Amino acid sequence: MSRRANYALCQFQQHLGPSADSLDVPWAEYTGDATDPVSFDIPTPSPADPYVQMQVYDVEDFDHEIVVNGEALSGFDIAPGDGWQLWMDTIAPERLHRGENTIQFRRDTDSKDAFVVGSVTVHWTEPVE
Q1: What are 69's strand-pairing partners?
Q2: Residue 14, in any domain of the structure
Q3: Which site from 14, 24, 73, 106 is most exposed, i.e. has the minimal number of CB atoms within 10 Å?
Q4: Does residue 60 sit within a domain?
Q5: Domain count within the chain
Q6: Which domain of life is it from (predicted)?
Q7: Residue from 34, 39, 42, 44 nearest 14 by CA
């Protein structure tokens, strides 16, 4: 069976941090310790090879989490870097399902780190019918 790539674009533009003035980013909405969950649809009952690519700004710590459908991804999810960075992390295939799915970012509350989540794409492969 042939497969093809598909993806969903999720827009955040949200600032996570200990306070609204923890990072000078007036163009990003301050949301505290977690982004709002963003929904995306998967049109197939058998998504495979999933991963997420994220634009993040000014991350200083490794211990922040990416949450897909209410469950945190394993391992460290976002690497530190100055300014805008583009990172990728894998998603266990069983985390995604046909229909509505959600993705959210959570800040490590033991950290003083402040950062921005920009645009995010969730990728998977699906059968070609």
Answers
A1: none
A2: no
A3: 24
A4: yes
A5: 1
A6: Archaea
A7: 34
Name, in order, each residue with C-beta under 8 angstroms of 126's C-beta and a sequence gap of 6 or more. 3, 4, 6, 42, 43, 44, 46, 47, 48
Is residue 20 in some structural domain?
A: no
DSSP secondary structure letter of residue 75: S
Half-sphere exposure of 78 (CA within 13 A, CB side): 32
Tell me if 62 is assigned to some domain.
Answer: yes
pLDDT in tens, 4-63: 999 999 999 999 999 999 999 999 999 999 999 999 999 999 999 999 999 999 999 999
Q: How confident is the model over 84-117, as pLDDT tens digits?
A: 999 999 999 999 999 999 999 999 999 999 999 9
Closest-CA residue to 120 (of 80, 85, 95, 75): 85
- What average pLDDT score do residues 62-69 get? 96
